[in-house]
Specification:
It contains 19 helices and 22 strands. The chain is of the alpha+beta class and 567 residues long. It folds into four domains: 163 residues, 2-Layer Sandwich (Heat Shock Protein 90), CATH 3.30.565; 87 residues, no CATH class; 107 residues, no CATH class; 159 residues. It is extended, with a radius of gyration of 33 Å.
């Protein structure tokens, strides 16, 4: 038998240098933390397109033996080195992926250039005394203006709460956390709770990671105090939760605060992250009451409680299925009260991949409560409601039929409606120009059939109104034509086919909101023009249309008179 020790090939060092830091900012951050470990009272950074300079007033590298022990060797023993951040002896190499560097400290100069010389570096001794440390690092490639701006903003975020002042290009970017406003303070950390989806964690003032609030319980900021060092992975971008006693205390406090806050009845709309946290917490019998919070999301975007979901299924006899948020067929089926359709976001929230898995999980979690499921069926007898993993197999599903109606199949009135809208098509796209940055290309306006919608588009060539929507617009008069104009704006904002789903992100809703509000006068003018053009083609007007036309004529006459008087 032979005993051996594992060894590390030199190529691993090159890999560590190139792969540890994904950004230049992270590489600079490592040197800042080394400066703090060296007892610096401040760290000053200057950079331009060609060169980076880092200066601190710490003790630097004090002897040749120390240099060979902690600079030459990657992964040195830390038992005899008091450090606030350093743990692995690997971080200094991150900067070398971006630039060559000289390290001037005490009577020494260390010259590193891994691109030109690989792992070979030069040590100059017996030089004139230089207190602290000065790193001069020419970039291998000059930084662009965007890269310089990114480095500045990245450093501001990475070092935001450093108690040792960090000064970049003459401006201090760090803030002492002890002088900031926090919601909670413990022996080891500061905590601020905010709206949002992430909990940003700072280890002794230095950024570690953005954690999903749905897992941690709160959104906001956690900053550990100086002297309370989180146990981190090698890249220092995640917490070793199993081994970190400090984080276990902080995490427990986060969950406690979240459970107390979210258990209180209030009118505040919950975020998706908060719903995920509550769903996760129902695994603990002590928090099973969270099921009575609106954490079950339907495809129409509504959020309901466990009780409401159970009642819809057990008492109404509706089936249960799942689909993407915004699925038109799902919304139509729920309106017809044939099927309750959960959003796939609900499955993800509970950590399952199918409806049956979700129901089994809920059955298990509620088995010792008074609010149990009465059973479900996937082809089994004796159950109260049925589950369909495939929406197309659920009761009430009809094959989506999004087809344009040929012009020769239209009635005379429908043709008049389309002609009226076509006459103001250019006015609508012109009103959208400012928000969309360029004038959208006009599309043909047609009638078409679709299940569960008012209008749809292929995203490029046409916008189709359903016959029902057109009839309602004609019947409603001026308000109906104004609504039709708003529908045109809505469909123009869709630049892809939307007959199957019409989910809208925040950017879409903001654009629609801005166009309708900022250009209301222009859109209203377009609707008036289309309405007047339409009624002129009608031999006999309905009473509502006649009243609207009289009001518009009176309004136009008053406006003309006012303009004449001003002239």
């Amino acid at each position: 038998m032979e005993s051996h020790e594992f060894e590390v090939d030199k190529s691993i060092i090159i890999h560590l240098i190139k792969s540890q830091a994904g950004t230049l900012g992270k590489g600079v951050l490592e040197t800042i933390m080394n400066s703090v470990d060296a007892g610096a009272s401040k760290v000053e950074i200057q950079f331009d397109a060609n060169t980076l300079t880092i200066v601190d007033d710490g003790h630097g590298l004090r002897s040749r033996d120390e240099i060979l022990a902690v600079f030459k060797r990657f992964g040195f023993d830390h038992s005899n080195h008091k450090r606030e951040f350093g743990k692995f002896g690997l971080g200094r190499g991150q900067l070398w992926n971006w630039c060559s560097s000289t390290w001037r400290t005490n009577q020494f100069l260390l010259d590193v250039d891994v691109r030109d010389r690989g792992l070979k570096w030069d040590l100059h001794s017996d030089l004139e005394q230089q207190d602290g440390l000065i790193i001069t690092a020419p970039f291998y490639e000059p930084l662009t203006a965007v890269e310089r701006s990114t480095l500045q903003s990245e450093l501001e975020r990475l070092c935001r709460y450093s108690t040792v002042p960090v000064i970049v290009n003459g401006v201090q970017i760090s803030k002492d956390p002890g002088t900031q406003k926090w919601d909670f303070e413990t022996e080891s950390a500061y905590m601020r709770v905010t709206e949002g989806h992430h909990l940003t964690v700072y280890n002794q003032g230095v950024l570690v990671a953005d954690l999903y609030a749905g897992h941690e319980g709160i959104a906001g900021v956690i900053c550990t105090k100086r002297g309370y060092n989180l146990t981190l992975n090698i890249a220092r971008n995640d917490i070793q939760r199993k081994d970190c006693a400090i984080w276990k205390e902080i995490s427990a406090l986060c969950r406690k605060q979240a459970n107390e806050r979210l258990s209180k009845p209030n009118s505040k709309r919950m975020t998706d992250a908060e719903r995920t946290f509550l769903a996760t917490q129902t695994a603990d019998p002590a928090h099973i009451e969270h099921l009575e919070k609106p954490i079950f999301t339907l495809t129409d975007g509504k959020h309901i409680t466990f009780g409401a979901l159970r009642n819809r299924l057990v008492r109404s006899g509706m089936a249960l299925s799942v689909a993407d948020t915004g699925n038109r067929m799902a919304e139509s089926m729920m309106r017809d009260k044939t099927t309750v359709v959960l959003s796939k976001a609900t499955l993800s929230r509970f950590g399952v991949v199918s409806v049956c898995e979700l129901l089994d999980l809920l059955e298990e979690r509620t088995k010792n409560t008074t609010k149990r499921w009465d059973g479900y069926s996937v082809g089994r007898e004796g159950r109260r409601f049925k589950v369909y993993e495939d929406l197309s197999e659920a009761p009430g599903f009809k094959q989506l039929n999004a087809n344009k109606i040929p012009h020769d199949k239209l009635t005379k009135q429908q043709r008049s409606f389309l002609s009226a809208l076509d006459s103001i098509n250019w006015m609508v796209v012109t009103a959208m120009k400012e928000v969309c940055e360029q004038r959208p290309a006009t599309r043909e306006i047609v009638l078409g059939t679709i299940e569960g919608g008012e209008a749809f588009t292929d995203g490029t060539s046409y916008i189709a109104f359903t016959p029902e929507t057109a009839a309602e617009s004609m019947r409603s008069g001026m308000p109906g034509f104004l609504r039709a104009v708003h529908l045109l704006v809505h469909e123009y904002l869709h630049n892809t086919e939307d007959s199957g789903s019409h989910a809208h992100d925040l950017d879409f809703m903001e654009a629609f909101h801005n166009i309708v509000l900022d250009n209301f006068s222009d859109l209203n003018k377009a609707a008036r023009h289309a309405f007047k053009k339409f009624v002129k083609t009608q031999g006999k007007l309905t009473r509502p249309n006649a009243l609207d036309l009289d009001l518009l004529d009176t309004s136009d006459a008053s406006a003309a008179q006012a303009a004449e008087e001003m002239a």
